[in-house]
Amino acid sequence: MKKLLAAALLASLTAAATAIDRIDLFAGSIEAESWRIDGLQSGFEWSADRRLQFTLRARQIQLAAVLLENVELVCARFSLQGQRIDCPQGELAFAGRQLPEVRTQVAFSYAAASKKISLHASRLPIAQGSVALDFRQEKNHWTLTARLRGLDLKTLNRLFQQTGFQTPPLDVQGQLGGRLTLRGARQRVQGIDWQLRAAHFAYANSAGTQAGEKLLCQTEGRARANGADWQADFQLGFDSGMLYSDPLYVEFKPDSTATLDVQLGWRPGQRLLHITRLDMDHQQVVSGRLKAQIRLAEKTRLERLEISVDNAQLPGFFVTYLQPWLAGTLWDEVETDGELQGRLVWQAGGLDSLNADLKNVSLRENSGLFSVQSLNAGLRWDMSGTPRDTVLTRRRSGN
User: Fold this and answer.
1) Of 394, 277, 290, 293, which Cα lies nearest the Cα of 342?
2) Of 390, 325, 377, 380, which Cα lies nearest the Cα of 352?
3) Cis (ω within 30 of 0) for the bond into 315?
4) Are residues 351 and 270 in the same domain?
5) Cα–Cα distances in Å, from 242 out to 209, 211, 250?
6) I need a labelling partner for 211 at 20 to 30 A (CA). Which of 77, 148, 245, 369 fits?
7) Residue 200 in domain
């Protein structure tokens, strides 16, 4: 009987197609815990070639943290099953605040009883590249996944600024690709997973004290909310290019790449950044670990810092990470060779302890003022007041 009624309805709609242009199903607003549609009009209408299609128009749609405006969805192919609609082939057009109109092919489904919604857009043209977008929501939880291809970072940064997002005051260039997934409940983001890669990446601040050029880098990791606090665990790698942070200049090459493995926590209520682990491996230069606790108040304060150097190779480590701080001093013209290990602890009041082991270290001042060959030493110093032994052995020295 139901099939007969459906056939009769379809036949009557087809017969009336020349007299009816549109049949409205719903108008108004609908919402769930993590999304809301305002100014909604949905129904059926006939296309220019007199084919029946489903349409949905909305003044704005809020999908979790994403706001779309002037939304229009046209489904050339669709199916209705009770209170569920599936649109395997449709066209979506929308705009955002300060954004140009976007038009793309989509697949869409909505179940009215459960308010379960899914949306897939295979190719959104954004920032001179494209984004494949998947949004799924069930009950109170939602997931938004974006696959990025060839996004121009300069254009993307400008789009963020136009839509009100706070971005660092940097001039950026390059291309970005990879995957970004946000998970949440209601209007709150609870987790972020990413796997991103930047090519030809460059940035600079207006003061000229921070810069990067021709960087090829990648990062993979995740961040999770724990109440108001956040925990993050990620890796960051540099394959080529250079970084400048006055006075340091660090260059990456195929035989001298760098990787960072980082675990940190952020407590916004206390403005406290806790770096629980930062493992660094800069090939042929230095490998080691770092822990830090930083208070990001009106005046940033380093409360605690621990640096452990497992292996630092000279001259690379000295030239890259130490000598820039010694510009204009006697050490500005010193050449080095050898290896060293060590550990430094800094408390809020100042340096707490310093241990270093030098292995076959050679020093030579370019004008011949002094030189030391094959120095082996164990240096021990702390604030405890307990006497420490320092042992120096050398094979040969100059002036």
Assistant:
1) 290
2) 380
3) yes
4) yes
5) 14, 8, 6
6) 148
7) no
